[in-house]
Write a structure and sequence with these properties.
The protein starts with 6 loop residues before the first helix and ends with a helix. It has a two-stranded antiparallel sheet with strand order 1-2. It is elongated. It is built from three helices and two strands; from the N terminus they run αβαβα. It is mainly alpha-helical and 109 residues long. Bound molecules: zinc ion. Zinc ion binds next to β2 and α3.
Length: 109
């Protein structure tokens, strides 16, 4: 990028966006798809830690077992893969049913 700061940089960025709009949108979509695929495959490979369910990635959640949550993994569209991997390691995979039951029990405590 030729400008470090100021109005020229803003203009340059705006023009760059306009000139490369489709390419940039496609890049963003590809990155998002790659992360989505990674998290889906990870969930299916682990399955629910409580009941073992592993048929549909959409029905599996990441559950933060400790209080060290940095971000919700569902927001992976803006995170790099390294951060997502780090966050995933803090979680256990649970199916929607077991996840809901677990939180319900936590509320009762
Ligand atoms: Zn389960």
């Amino acid at each position: 990028m030729p400008y470090k700061s100021g109005r020229k940089r803003t203009e340059y960025n705006k023009q760059y966006w306009l000139d490369n709009r489709e390419k940039l949108i496609k890049q963003q979509r590809d990155r998002w798809e790659k992360r989505r695929q990674y998290t889906q495959e990870y969930k299916l490979s682990k399955g629910c830690k409580i009941c073992g369910y592993n048929k549909c990635a959409g029905a599996l959640d990441f559950h933060h077992s400790n209080d060290d949550k940095e971000f919700t993994i569902g927001s992976y569209s803006i995170m790099n893969l390294e951060r997502i991997e780090r966050e995933i390691k803090k979680c256990v995979v649970l199916c929607r049913n077991c996840h809901a039951e677990l939180h319900e029990k936590e509320r009762e405590l």
